[in-house]
Specification:
Shape: globular
Radius of gyration: 21 Å
Distance between the termini: 27 Å
CATH architecture of the largest domain: 3-Layer(aba) Sandwich
Largest sheet: 6 strands, antiparallel
CATH class of the largest domain: Alpha Beta
Strand content: 15-25%
Structural class: alpha+beta
Order of helices and strands: EHHHEEEHEEHHHHEEEHEHE
Helix content: 25-40%
Length: 364
């Protein structure tokens, strides 16, 4: 357990300072556009100190978002199955092996331990050489269990106590109730990314592409990687749509940040508050989420509500994300396929948020 008693996945103020990353393993979690953003960070010019800081900050932010969005569990409390991803907050021991490699060791409950090879080329800051020696008492590690005794060390860093401190009354709140609800109203991604522009693409098209890229990654996490759990309240009921928006924003941080897309939750253009209004240059894009409470409400949101928001914002471009908690997503997709919205360009997405019967795993 973490030094402050708060699991990393439930820490709404999680601040992760990374000093080690296996990029090839991390890249599989990102969408194509997200991988492009990460490449831009690695290739950005500037003094070595600034480049290291930027890489560390971005990896920390991406890792923190993935830990929370996918609810990675503490390996010392929830032993993972082979192939599962986990997080470890606490002591990680480092020592030289007989073959000359350096090994990282995490001790589990009951006296067992798991080890991983430390790859020198994966160190991204000078502090890695200092921290990855003997015992790192406050490490934060993201890894994947390869066998009962071995794991793949993907990310290593430490939690910043100044940013991870929180009131005791928040300790009982779930990741869904606290962090995701807050993210629907705020944009916590710092301005540490290099500016990226999609060449020969007008701003309105870049906005639509960024939304599509993020929705696809969001959908994969909800449908295949267990993130659906965050879309229900403590009573097991589908959560308010702001919860869906908050989870979506977790997956948008890297892409939207690098493209310099501004996100305005609950922006009111004169006819009511939109879920999310996105701006890039002079272009705007309206993004609406709708739960599958009824066919009539789904169609009303698509054919009446969203077009009115778009007209008020002086844009013809928007996206409509339907979150299926009760209905078969394929049936809903068929229902909206024939819906006509004249004079508006609206991309529609249907996400299956229904409870999954088996524990989800990262694929890769």
């Amino acid at each position: 357990m973490a030094w402050n008693g708060v699991p990393a996945a439930e820490d709404e103020n999680l601040s992760f300072q990374a000093y080690y990353v296996r990029l090839n393993a991390l890249r599989q979690f990102l969408s194509p556009l997200g991988r492009q953003m990460l490449d831009a960070v690695w290739e950005s010019e500037g003094p070595d100190v600034m480049r290291s800081f930027r890489r560390s900050a971005v990896i920390g932010l991406v890792a923190g978002d993935l830990i929370r969005a996918l609810g990675l569990r503490e390996v010392t409390e929830y032993p993972p199955a082979i192939g599962d991803w986990f997080v470890h907050s606490g002591v990680t021991s480092y020592a030289a092996a007989s073959d000359g490699n350096q090994l990282a060791t995490i001790r589990l409950q009951g006296g067992d331990s798991i080890t991983s090879v430390v790859r020198p080329e994966c160190r991204i800051t000078n502090s890695a050489a200092v921290n990855m020696v003997e015992q790192d008492d406050v490490s934060l590690v993201v890894g994947r269990l390869l066998s009962p005794k071995k794991f793949d060390l993907v990310i290593a860093g430490y939690r910043d106590p100044l940013f991870s401190l929180k009131d005791t009354d928040l300790l009982s709140l779930s990741v869904g109730q606290s962090m995701l609800d807050r993210l629907a109203k705020e944009n916590p991604f710092p301005n540490v990314l290099p500016t990226v522009k999609i060449e020969s693409t007008p701003d309105y098209a870049a906005l639509a592409y960024a939304v599509k890229d993020t929705v696809e990654r969001f959908t994969e996490a909800v449908e295949k990687q267990g993130a659906w759990r965050h879309l229900y309240d403590q009573n097991g009921k589908p959560a308010h749509e702001t919860r869906h928006q908050g989870l979506f924003k977790l997956f948008s941080q890297l892409t939207f940040g690098a493209l310099r897309i501004s996100v305005h939750p609950n922006a009111d253009h004169g006819v009511g508050a939109t879920d999310l209004t996105l701006d890039l240059g002079e272009a705007a894009h309206i993004l609406e989420f709708k739960k599958d409470t009824s066919t009539a409400k789904i169609l009303h949101g698509l054919q009446v509500q969203l077009p009115r928001y778009m007209d008020a914002a002086s844009t013809i471009f928007g996206s409509y994300v339907i979150m299926c908690h009760e209905r078969d997503s394929r049936e809903v997709a068929e229902t909206i396929r024939s819906a006509v919205v004249p004079n508006h360009v609206i991309d529609t997405y249907v996400v299956d948020c229904r409870r999954q019967t088996s524990a989800s795993k990262f694929q890769g």
